[in-house]
Automatic annotation (TrEMBL):
This is Lsr2 DNA-binding domain-containing protein. Residues 722-732 have a biased composition (Low complexity). The lineage of its organism: Bacteria, Bacillati, Actinomycetota, Actinomycetes, Kitasatosporales. GO terms for molecular function: acyltransferase activity; DNA binding. The keyword Cytoplasm does not apply. It comes from Streptomyces cinereoruber.
Length: 766
């Protein structure tokens, strides 16, 4: 029975394709016995008044929440749509049917049609399963790798609410007879054919013929024309969607006055006249409309040909003529990547055309809608249709098309546990972004596996850990050593695997050899780094206690570490199996401390420069005052301990940024000066560290680092690992290299071992 026949037989909606269904389950507060009633109350309230900023009170609750928040928690579950500007939630036909009929089974069928792993969760319950096991099935069999049980619990709540499953006191979820009968009426996904499995061999696709009017324009696009395109897609009433663009262009056939166009937008999309005027300007800049009279506009010849062909690809061809890096973004989607990684790749290729994350997201959304790209989990990749189109488009030549030049040079750490200094004349953020983009790109360059090995090694060096590069037969690719304390180091064998399809499988990895490598290099653990991993490999890695790290995760860690550096002992969670949640908590806490410090400084500065505050309180604020001033700025208001810690730090003689006055604190220096003092302290620490850690004095009076210690006897301590320099390195070359990067270096005497080691790493001579 096909989908249409099944729908006719059951009365249930046909499930959307797997990739277009939402991964997040709708959330409604309450117990399983309450959530359907609470959902009904919310839908009735929206039906009565969809104003999103008004308060809404859940049944049985004493506190109200903005309707916006309650509606947002439903997500894309098939019950609400958003229309107008500002957008207002309105009920879908399915939601109205539920309100009229009260049919709980139809409600679950609607959720199943729009949300992944809803009916599939019911199918996997079988004779009984617990939440942890069900979450594991969602990850291994359906490609839904959730870090907590929250999403599984939400789905089970809905199934319990409709009487489809029961939750027993032993923690088992068991299907009811009603649930088994309901399941027979559902069309569930075939887990063996889901996109997270290794993709099949590409099929040849045929592009729609190029409209005659578009052909000369595309063939005439030279590099200057490609470079002059506009970065912004611009505002369009109703959004940048194919159906919306078609309606707007059709309205201008044969022509339309400015007043009529604005009236059309106001009536069709519920926007203001000013928004309609902005839409008109955007359509003209995109080459869809042109002015044909004093105040009259018409569809361009290009736009008319796109309407006549009724092919979304033609509209993308037209937009490529006017929108910067549109086809180039599709070209960069050759391999699966999230929008954040894609933005890094584009920034590396086209540094003089900066696209924001929102710019990239809007381009990707256009490709998803037109079938030129597809979403797999949290990543996006172009389809065969997208690949075929890219091959026919004129593209801007990348400024830097290849891998990051000398990635090791951008990845030489100064002191273990600190971010690497920037290359001479370079922007540290750009260097880190370039390396992060290289990690993501190299992971899918199966023609040059050493490129990925170099990028991974460089990434770990930027993270501030010692790296030994090996590679070769019977050897691991690298070993990272994390200095956790004077008496403890943690060695991890690193195995880097590339795959052109973006998915490393269990056929690509021999876990027995990973164990041999671990033993050979006296490592305590192994981390496998790759573009992505299939379900079977994830299972086997868990049983072998091997940590998995995707290239995207490593790239994200680079960018995050540049903003908020962590110590090696904290970063150890990145390469230890099952520690992802601990790493996330550590990073969030560190970022929270940074945010707290900035808020406290600027709040005190504002108070110290407010004449009213100065007259009444001399500008002094207590902890409670700071809480009151900052509580609307943060989602979670400052805790007194957080504020107290920030004040204590600012009060130290090293900063002298605040001082006590009465029962509060006053600021004693502008925020810019406090920041300058922090930078000066950092410079002092880095300068003092140029000569290495305390050790024996060399024959010429310079500090010589100690030899690498063996096992540390009880009661003794060790210092961070310092590698010995090669004897054939010319001191003049090292000094010239250091000066070019702004690093302090002595003109005579023995060179610091750390400096020599960094030089070797930068030249890839280790």
């Amino acid at each position: 029975m096909d989908s249409s026949e099944q729908r006719a037989a059951t009365g249930f909606p046909t499930p959307l394709p797997w990739l277009t269904r939402a991964s997040a389950s709708p959330y409604v507060p309450g117990t399983p016995q309450e959530i359907i009633g609470n959902l009904r109350a919310l839908l009735l309230s929206i039906l009565e008044d969809g104003t999103i900023d008004r308060p809404f009170t859940w049944p049985g609750s004493e506190r109200s929440v903005p309707l916006r928040n309650a509606a947002h928690a439903l997500g894309s579950c098939g019950l609400l749509t958003r229309e107008g500007r500002p957008p207002r939630p309105t009920l879908t036909r399915a939601a109205r049917h539920f309100l009229d009929s009260g049919d709980e089974l139809h409600l679950i069928a609607v959720l199943h049609a729009n949300v992944r792993f809803m009916g599939e969760a019911l199918a996997e319950v079988g004779d009984g399963i617990n939440h942890t096991e069900l979450n594991k099935v969602a990850g291994t069999e359906y490609g839904l790798s959730w870090n907590s049980l929250d999403q599984v619990r939400r789905r089970v709540y809905w199934l319990r609410a409709a009487g489809l499953v029961e939750y027993w006191t032993n923690g088992r979820i068991v299907a009811t007879e009603r649930g088994r009968e309901f399941l027979e009426r559902l069309e569930t996904a075939d887990r063996d054919r889901l996109p997270h499995r290794r993709p099949p061999a590409p099929e040849l696709v045929e592009l729609p013929p190029l409209p005659a009017s578009l052909a000369p324009a595309l063939s005439g696009m030279d590099q200057a024309a490609l470079r002059s395109r506009k970065r912004l897609l611009g505002y369009i009433a109703g959004g940048v969607r194919m159906d919306v663009l078609a309606r707007l262009v059709n309205a201008a056939v044969p022509d339309i006055t400015r007043a009529d166009f604005k009236a059309f937008c106001v009536e069709e999309f519920g926007v203001l006249e000013s928004s309609a005027e902005q839409t008109l300007s955007t359509l003209r800049s995109l080459g869809l409309l042109t002015q044909v009279g004093t105040d009259t506009f018409a569809a361009t010849e290009y736009a008319t040909s796109c309407l006549e062909s009724d092919e979304p690809v033609d509209l993308v061809r037209l937009l490529h003529l006017h929108v910067a890096l549109l086809g180039e973004t599709l070209d960069a989607l050759e391999n699966s990547a999230p929008s954040s990684a894609l933005a890094l790749v584009l920034a590396e290729r086209y540094p003089d055309i900066p696209l924001t994350h929102q710019d990239v997201t809007r381009r990707v959304a256009l490709f998803l809608e037109t079938g030129l790209a597809e979403r797999i989990g949290l990543t996006v990749r172009r389809t065969e249709l997208g690949a075929a189109l890219v091959r026919t488009l004129p593209l801007l030549r990348p400024t830097n098309p290849g891998p990051v030049a000398h990635v090791d040079a951008a990845a030489t750490p100064g002191v273990p546990g600190t971010p690497a200094p920037a290359a001479a004349g370079g922007d540290p953020a750009h260097n880190v972004g370039s390396l992060a983009a290289e990690v993501v790109r190299a992971a899918v360059d199966s023609s040059d596996y050493r490129r990925f090995e170099r990028a991974v090694a460089a990434a770990f060096r930027v993270l501030g850990v010692d790296v030994e590069t090996h590679s070769g037969p019977k050897r691991t690719d690298a070993v990272v050593e994390l200095w956790r304390s004077p008496t403890e180091r943690y060695r991890i064998a690193v195995e880097a695997k590339t795959d052109g399809a973006g998915l490393v499988t269990d056929q690509d990895v021999r876990f027995r050899r990973l164990g041999e490598h671990r033993t050979r290099h006296t490592a305590q653990g192994t981390v496998l780094v790759g573009p992505g991993f299939d379900a079977r490999l994830v299972q086997e890695a868990a049983s072998e206690k091997v940590a998995l790290l995707t290239a995207r995760e490593l790239a994200d860690a680079l960018v995050r570490h540049a903003r908020t550096p962590l110590a090696p002992r904290e970063l150890a969670a990145l390469v230890i199996r099952g520690e992802a949640d601990a790493l996330e908590r550590t990073w969030r806490a560190a970022e929270r401390r940074q945010e707290t410090l900035g808020l406290v400084v600027h709040t005190l500065w504002k108070s110290g420069n407010d004449p009213v505050e100065v007259r009444h309180t001399t500008g002094a604020l207590g902890i409670n005052d700071i809480w009151r001033e900052t509580r609307k700025t943060l989602g979670t208001p400052l805790d007194p301990d957080e504020t107290g810690a920030a004040l204590a730090f600012l009060e130290t003689p090293f900063l002298s940024g605040v001082e006590r006055r009465g029962g509060g604190h006053v600021i004693t220096a502008p925020p810019s000066l406090i920041a300058a003092r922090l930078r000066a302290l950092a410079t002092a620490i880095e300068s003092a560290g140029e000569e290495g850690p305390p050790g024996d004095h060399g024959p010429e009076g310079t500090l010589a680092p100690p030899e690498r210690p063996g096992p540390v006897p009880s009661g003794q301590t060790s210092v961070p690992h310092q590698q010995q320099a090669s004897s054939n390195i010319q001191a003049s070359a090292v000094r010239a290299w250091a000066k070019a990067r702004g690093r302090a270096v002595n003109e005579r005497g023995r060179l610091p071992e750390r400096l020599v080691t960094d030089y070797l790493r930068a030249r890839d001579l280790e």
